[in-house]
Amino acid sequence: MLDERKATILRAIVEEYIETAQPVGSAHVARAPGINVSAATIRNDMAALEQEGYLHQPHTSAGRVPTEKGYRFFVDSLGGPGRLTPAEAQQVRQFFARAHGELEAMLESTSRLLSKLTRYTAVVVGPAHEAAVVRSAQLVSLTPRVALFVVVLSSGAIEKHAIEFDDDVDEVVVNAAGVRLAGLLVGRPLAEAANVVLDEHDPGREVPVMRATLEALRAPAVEDQEVYIGGTSQMAEAFDAVASVREILRLLEQQFVVVSLLRDVLDRGLQVAIGTETGMEPLSEAAVVVAPYEVHGEPVGSIGVLGPARMNYPQAMAAVAVVSARLGRTLSEG
User: Fold this and answer.
1) I need a surface site. Which of 160, 196, 320, 327 has the fewest CB within 10 A?
2) 183, 218, 253: which is the final residue of a domain?
3) Distance CA 105, CA 157 (A)
4) 106 and 244, same structural domain?
5) pLDDT at 34 exceeding the cut of 90
6) What digits encode the pLDDT tens for the residues 226-285?
7) What is the pLDDT of residue 334?
8) Whether the Cβ atoms of residue 245 and residue 235 lie closer than 8 Å to each other
């Protein structure tokens, strides 16, 4: 534990370094609010903070920069997200006032909104379809041998499956199959709905159509959770090393890795993971701020921002918290 004076000095250094990306000297710290001690005392405390692992001195004559431990202390001392500026809050309200349409388009737009708010790369992980409940199901005849099965899920996602028949099927039969399927599937989780078993001895003409439709519903999805990434161009400005940018962009191309990263951070009870806390070597100089979003009170996906370890944590945490809450509310309202 740090005493209050050292904690105040450390916070002042972190805030200055986040703002300038330049090593911070005692003269800058002396001008910070709440610092009422001599320059000699500040230098002594900075040396002590370096010995304790909170600061690092890049060069002998240079000021100090925060270490991962220093950033962690700073984040933990915040006590929660900050507040968006009135202009940022207005931007969020206007976005969600206009946010309608299919889930995929909304999540993609949300990733761009979050990136614009924070000036970091934003990631939105869509709801896992298998856990969502079927809200409605409709089977529509397109041609005598092709029908379209549309399933609307409680998460807001829409699944579409083309059903092909070996022989011509009357539209009346397709409609009857759709009515029966809706009765069987609505209200069930998608994974359970896909495994509904039909009575083999049912003589109805619509049963083969129902069986073909359920077979299509059981087909595994390529990815259960879609990932939407906004602001990858922000990487070049956020990180000094080209090699770091290249490695992070390569990581973001791996959808499963991104989903696992955000899920792991949340599972460990964290909102912020810094450097080695992410568990991924390419992110050793980066930080992730993440939050879940809920639909009808249930967590269904996550959103986050990825930036340098010297990111503006109060603003990033505020943006992620506000956007995740508004996204969940919008999806719950349908």
Assistant:
1) 160
2) 218
3) 10
4) yes
5) no
6) 888 998 888 777 776 667 788 888 888 887 788 888 989 988 888 999 999 999 988 988
7) 67
8) yes
Q: Which amino acid is at 305?
A: V
Residues 91, 54 within the same domain: no
Question: Do residue 110 and residue 49 come from a single domain?
Answer: no
Strand positions, DSSP E, the chain: 55-56, 65-66, 121-125, 134-143, 146-153, 158-164, 227-230, 272-274, 286-295, 298-308
Beta bridge partners of 229: 123
Q: Please tell me whether residues 171 and 242 are part of one structural domain.
A: no
- Residue with token string 């805030």: 15
Q: Which tokens is 158 given?
A: 């829409």
Structural domain range at position 300? 86-127+225-333
pLDDT digits (tens, 9 = 90+) for 172-217: 999 999 999 999 999 888 878 878 888 888 888 999 999 999 988 8
